[in-house]
């Protein structure tokens, strides 16, 4: 990867910072392209002088995407949203990136999608992700598509969100406690992205489901986070009917779910049987227990001096 110019669309986000760090450590030049490039300035010290570039680009505007990827040896689309106009960002936006990469003759394109992507999904999120994958394949047949399960890491919006809820409330309601996930470490996903960029002849044109070593239910995850943070709240499994009303009406303050996310929870978010995954990249998945306790201490009442429960 040394001296190659890799453009990261949405490179200042949660996953993007790990991809950028890996690329910079390998000697690549990294161009961060996003709507507000100043928000990604924290990445500058990670590279050498002139190794990191920052450009403004809006994935909804094809011309800005085309300008951002000019001269690139590889492009990664990292843009994803949890609420808002899913189609504009995750379907049309994905198409804009793939078409621009194809027109510019970029050798390698990696598109980060998600397990659950399906053009026929009842969920707008899952549907837009599926439409985005189809658009990428149509415009850039040699793209590598990565479909991670829930991604965890120090800055994530999943484990941290539940940890904050558990620390703040004496009673924690669990929505769809039977739903299963296969959480995957952000560093492992970043390594897969870089491996795909480095060898498009091997990984191009393929789709990979990325999951960690454990399949865990929503309820088991909440119990595990509570134990790791030394908290002992009353945990209540909400009936599906109540959960559906909360998701539809949002009457529970701080409800950790939207109506669209409720639809996604009707299906397990795990690697499909027989799917190619992290092993194809030579990556051994990292368990949550190996890294998460290191940052979950911030949610203990007395920090590192609190003994985890269990």
Overview of the molecule:
The structure is a single chain. The chain is of the alpha/beta class and 310 residues long. Helix content is 37%, strand content 16%. It contains twelve helices and 13 strands. Strands 3-2-1-4-5-6-11 form a seven-stranded parallel sheet, with helices on both faces. Strands 7-10 form a two-stranded parallel ribbon. Helix 1 (14-25) links the parallel strand 1 and strand 2 (29-34). The chain is globular and about 55 Å long.
What fraction of residues sit in β-strands? 15-25%
Coarse structural class: alpha/beta
Order of helices and strands: EHEEHEHEHEEHEEEHHEEHEHHHH
Could you describe the largest sheet, including whether it forms a barrel? 7 strands, parallel
Which stretches of 5+ consecutive residues score pLDDT under 50? none
Using the CA coordinates, give the radius of gyration: 20 Å
What best-fitting shape do the alpha-carbon axes yield? globular
């Amino acid at each position: 990867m040394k001296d190659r110019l890799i453009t990261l669309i949405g490179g200042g986000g949660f996953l993007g910072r790990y991809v950028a760090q890996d690329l910079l450590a390998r000697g690549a030049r990294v161009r961060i392209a996003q709507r507000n490039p100043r928000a990604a300035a924290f990445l500058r010290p990670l590279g050498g002088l002139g190794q990191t570039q920052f450009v403004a680009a809006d994935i909804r505007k094809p011309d800005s995407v085309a300008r951002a990827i000019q001269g690139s040896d590889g492009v990664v689309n990292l843009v994803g949203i949890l609420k808002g106009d899913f189609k504009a960002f995750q379907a049309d936006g994905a198409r804009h990136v793939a078409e621009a990469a194809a027109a510019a003759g970029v050798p390698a394109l990696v598109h980060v999608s998600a397990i659950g992507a399906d053009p026929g999904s009842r969920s707008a999120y899952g549907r837009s992700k599926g439409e985005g994958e189809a658009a990428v394949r149509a415009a850039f047949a040699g793209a590598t598509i990565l479909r991670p399960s829930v991604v965890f890491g120090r800055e994530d919006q999943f484990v941290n969100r539940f940890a904050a809820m558990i620390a703040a409330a004496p009673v924690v309601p669990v929505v769809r406690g039977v739903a299963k996930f296969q959480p995957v470490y952000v560093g492992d996903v970043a390594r897969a992205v870089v491996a795909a960029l480095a060898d498009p002849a091997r990984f191009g044109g393929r789709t990979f489901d990325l999951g960690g070593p454990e399949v865990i239910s929503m309820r088991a995850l909440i119990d595990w986070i509570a134990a790791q943070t030394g908290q002992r709240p009353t945990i209540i499994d909400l009936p599906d009917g109540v959960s559906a009303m909360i998701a539809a009406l949002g009457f529970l303050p701080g409800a950790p779910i939207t109506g669209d996310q409720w639809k996604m929870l009707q299906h397990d978010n795990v690697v499909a049987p027989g799917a190619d995954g992290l092993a194809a990249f030579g990556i051994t998945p990292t368990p949550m227990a190996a890294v998460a306790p290191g940052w979950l201490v911030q949610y203990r009442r007395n920090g590192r001096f609190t003994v985890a429960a269990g």
